[in-house]
From TrEMBL:
<dbReference type="GO" id="GO:0030145">
    <property type="term" value="F:manganese ion binding"/>
</dbReference>
<dbReference type="InterPro" id="IPR019831">
    <property type="entry name" value="Mn/Fe_SOD_N"/>
</dbReference>
<feature type="domain" description="Manganese/iron superoxide dismutase C-terminal">
    <location>
        <begin position="133"/>
        <end position="233"/>
    </location>
</feature>
<dbReference type="InterPro" id="IPR019833">
    <property type="entry name" value="Mn/Fe_SOD_BS"/>
</dbReference>
<dbReference type="InterPro" id="IPR019832">
    <property type="entry name" value="Mn/Fe_SOD_C"/>
</dbReference>
<feature type="domain" description="Manganese/iron superoxide dismutase N-terminal">
    <location>
        <begin position="40"/>
        <end position="119"/>
    </location>
</feature>
<comment type="similarity">
    <text>Belongs to the iron/manganese superoxide dismutase family.</text>
</comment>
<protein>
    <recommendedName>
        <fullName>Superoxide dismutase</fullName>
        <ecNumber>1.15.1.1</ecNumber>
    </recommendedName>
</protein>
<dbReference type="GO" id="GO:0005739">
    <property type="term" value="C:mitochondrion"/>
</dbReference>
<keyword id="KW-0479">Metal-binding</keyword>
<keyword id="KW-0049">Antioxidant</keyword>
<dbReference type="Pfam" id="PF02777">
    <property type="entry name" value="Sod_Fe_C"/>
</dbReference>
<feature type="binding site">
    <location>
        <position position="200"/>
    </location>
    <ligand>
        <name>Mn(2+)</name>
    </ligand>
</feature>
<dbReference type="Pfam" id="PF00081">
    <property type="entry name" value="Sod_Fe_N"/>
</dbReference>
<keyword id="KW-0560">Oxidoreductase</keyword>
<comment type="function">
    <text>Destroys radicals which are normally produced within the cells and which are toxic to biological systems.</text>
</comment>
<dbReference type="InterPro" id="IPR036314">
    <property type="entry name" value="SOD_C_sf"/>
</dbReference>
Amino acid sequence: MLFSPAKFSVAQACSQLSRNFFNKNITSGYKAAGAGIRLKHTLPEFHVEFSAFAPVWSEEIVKNHYTGNHALYVKNLNDTETKLQDAISSGKTVEAGNLHRNLRFNSGGHVNHSRLWKFITPVCNGGGKVIDGSLKKQIESIWGTVENMMLALNNTTATIQGSGWGWLAVNKQTLNLELITTPNQDTPEYYGYLHLFGIDAWEHAFYLDYKTAKAAYFKNIWQIANWKQIQKNYDIAMATKA
Ligand SMILES: [Fe+2]
């Protein structure tokens, strides 16, 4: 089995969150395949009830998102890397080159979702609670209020045609805060940005609960934004300054 999610009550889940799950780096989802040959990607551990993100997300949609969508990105990423390694080692240059689309798509899917589980947290664990700090100050200097920035990112995300993500991100060149979108499962890094917070605008992230009311989903997702993690992401991004 790829994962074994622990089962706690919602109350217990909140006490477990900070020490078990949300402090983990996504590289924890990576382990040796054996014999020191290559590493396999694995799902990051999920130490909360799938119902812990209610009322923003139902138990069913979180379970499907994690055990279905995210798990499939992990599987396909491992499969693609195996094929790529085989193609390279056997000198099949054209085949190796053709695998880049699968590699880009599934690596992005795994990375983006591993980050998602960290920059959200249940309401009972401080979800949605904006914290004072350098990020809040910078947001207010640009958008006036945090609420204005949220609305602006929701509007930016709504412009995505098809599937993708909306991001509060730092431009790696200027270190300025920007609101961007990435298509499909592309990461912000692919376009020269570092992620702080993202809105998964794929249908699998909202349709079960919201049907076509995508705007309501964008509005509600902020109730489980993990501002401690988002501030931490900002600190990491700003530390890249030369
Ligand atoms: Fe997703």
